[in-house]
Amino acid sequence: MHLYVFFTASQQGIGELSLFAQEVVESNLPGREVLSDARPGTWDTPERLLSASIDDDSPTVVVFDEFPYLVADDPTIEATFQKQRDRLLSKKPVLLIMVGADVAMMEALNIHGRAFFQRGTEMVVSPLSPAETAGIVGSENAADAFDANLITGGLPLICDEWSKAATMWEYLAETLCNPTSAPCPERTRRPRSSSCRELE
Questions:
Q1: pLDDT given for residue 61 in this prediction
Q2: End of a domain among 108, 140, 157?
Q3: Torsions phi, psi of 61, nearest 5?
Q4: CA distance to 4, 23, 68, 118, 170, per residue, from 32 (Å)
Q5: Which residues does residue 60 pair with via DSSP β-bridges, in sequence order?
Q6: What is the mean pLDDT of the chain?
Q7: In a domain, 116, yes or no
Q8: Rounded CA gap, 14 and 16, in Å?
Q9: Which end of the chain has less Cβ packing within 10 Å, N or C?
Q10: CB 24 within 8 A of CB 54
Q11: What's the first-to-final CA gap in the chain, in angstroms?
């Protein structure tokens, strides 16, 4: 069994602490109960309890998605993570992964003078290829696969919304008229228009 915790930050400020603790409680870590009654005021507490919840012998993966949000909310979080990693997590078979779309900010985490300097390995995750996109959306030929890849940008979140075997036009008609769909960020959302009806 794979042991892991996947936490996605959502710009909740101090509320992120409780949300992370809840994710650990709902995970499959063997000692997750230690966070069940936690009411953390800083990241020091959940990180320390996270270490206590991780088994000494079983490999564990801990993912912090949208990590730049956490850094923006709490500039001390890097030093806190570094301290707990060096003191506790480094003694455990744990892989700590921090994910963020802000490339400049993520690269800056590993520069001289920052808490994670020479403690992490940078990895750029590229978008899906046309072939990988086709496998998710169900494209029947190369032309459809390239169309789907261009429309989705090869982003898994958008590909997942593509109904299996739907044509390009069927997908566009469905998703562009849905203000909550992944390709429609808040800044571009607007009421249904004649262009939506024409697609339908």
A1: 95
A2: 108
A3: -115, 130
A4: 11, 9, 25, 30, 44
A5: 3, 94
A6: 85
A7: no
A8: 5
A9: N
A10: no
A11: 46
Residue with tokens 């044509």: 167
Contacts of 115 (CB under 8 A, 6+ apart): 78, 79, 81, 82, 109
Query: DSSP string covering 49-86, please?
Result: HHHHHS-SSS-EEEEEETHHHHHHH-TTHHHHHHHHHH
User: What does the pLDDT look like over 68-88, one tens digit per residue?
Assistant: 999 988 888 888 888 888 888
| Domain range enclosing 25 | 3-108
For the entire predicted model, the pTM comes to 0.71
What is the edge-to-edge ordering of all strands in the sheet holding 3-8? 3-8, 60-65, 94-98
- What amino acid is encoded at 183 in this protein? P
pLDDT at 195: 47
Residues 151, 186, single domain; the answer is yes
Q: Binning pLDDT at 50, 70 and 90, where does residue 93 land?
A: very high
What distance in Å separates the CA atoms of residue 100 and residue 107, rounded to the nearest whole number? Answer: 10
Q: Is there a contact between 42 and 80 (Cβ–Cβ < 8 Å)?
A: yes
Give the C-alpha distances (Å, rounded to integers) separating 168 from 158, 184, 191, 199: 13, 16, 22, 11
Residues 147 and 87 in one domain: no
| pLDDT for the residue numbered 189 | 42
Place of tokens 């570094």: 82
- Asked if residues 79 and 115 have their Cβ atoms less than 8 Å apart, the reply is yes
Tell me the backbone φ, ψ of residue 78, rounded to 5 degrees. Answer: -60, -50
Kindly state the percentage of the chain with pLDDT values over 70: 91
Look at 24-38, 98-112, 173-187 and tell me which has the smallest mean pLDDT.
173-187
